[in-house]
Amino acid sequence: MEKRTQIRWENRFSWPVAATPVIAVGTVSELNSFAGEFAKELSRDRKVEGREGYRIRVKRGKGAPVLSVIGNDARGVLFGVGHLLRALRMKSGVVTLPDDFSVATAPRYRLRGHQLGYRPKTNSYDAWDEARWEQYIRDLVVFGCNAIELIPPRSDDNPTSPHFPLPPMEMMVAMSRLADEYGLDVWIWYPAMDRDYADPKTLEFAINEWGEVFKKLPRIDAVFVPGGDPGHTQPKILLALLEK
After folding, report:
1. pLDDT 10s digit of each residue in the chain, 244 long?
2. Which of 170, 175, 167 is nearest to 136 (CA)?
């Protein structure tokens, strides 16, 4: 917002004494600690049920508007703030929102993810540094994304790119950490690339290789192993690999 308007809002953890516009943000369980004089009124307000749900309300207090973003949980707060940012009208020196603006909503779909492939295939991602990835992940959050899917260093792509600012494993660790800092789930799309997982040596190699990747990542919530494209392992053998 500051980049678009040249306005920098003060971040405070206490209610201002003077009559000034306020944006109050928090979870419904913390309502009494951040909603000021409107805590009781907002507690009786029409609620929205569901994980990651949120409400946005505009009230008038002491002559100055008060806007509250109330999340059902921490992610609800995050997505509520994202909704607010999309709704604000910004230009140089001015930020506006209608007085009657009101939202109460929760996601229809539990999983809303996006694959972020740091690999020489997209003709863009492979040139991004950590700061660019953080901006992109933050933008995904603004539009309600709650999960990202990463790709391991070894897949069906070339192992390197002339545009890589970091080796694939280092960037994978950084992206997992960034997602965790924003409270997003981290999925891994992990293809079974080796020729014969019925061979004990191949199986041992794969388990060790995958294990080393998993140990380095700050966060993993799920691993998705495709049965093909790439991969050619029969289900019986593939499932035995996954059990190990």
Report:
1. 898 999 999 999 888 888 888 999 999 999 999 998 899 999 998 889 999 999 999 998 667 899 999 999 999 999 999 999 999 999 999 999 998 999 999 999 999 999 999 999 877 899 999 999 999 999 999 999 999 999 999 999 898 999 999 999 999 999 999 999 999 999 999 999 999 999 999 999 999 999 999 999 999 999 999 998 898 999 999 999 999 9
2. 175
Q: Where in the chain is the domain with CATH 3.30.379.10?
A: 2-105
- Contact present, 178 and 135 (Cβ < 8 Å): no
Q: Which CATH number does 2-105 carry?
A: 3.30.379.10
Give the integer Cα–Cα distance in Å for 139 and 47. 27
Contact call for residues 140 and 114 (beta carbons, < 8 A):
yes
Task: State the DSSP string of 170-198.
Answer: HHHHHHHHHHHHTT-EEEEE----SS-TT
Residue 230: cis peptide before it, omega within 30 degrees of 0: yes
Residues forming CATH 3.20.20.80 domain(s) in the chain: 113-243
Q: How many C-beta atoms surround the C-beta of residue 134 within 10 A?
A: 18
Q: Is the pTM of this model over 0.70?
A: yes
Q: Which CATH superfamily is domain 113-243 in?
A: Glycosidases (3.20.20.80)
Helices (DSSP H) in the chain: which residue ranges? 2-5, 31-34, 39-43, 74-87, 130-142, 168-181, 200-216, 235-243
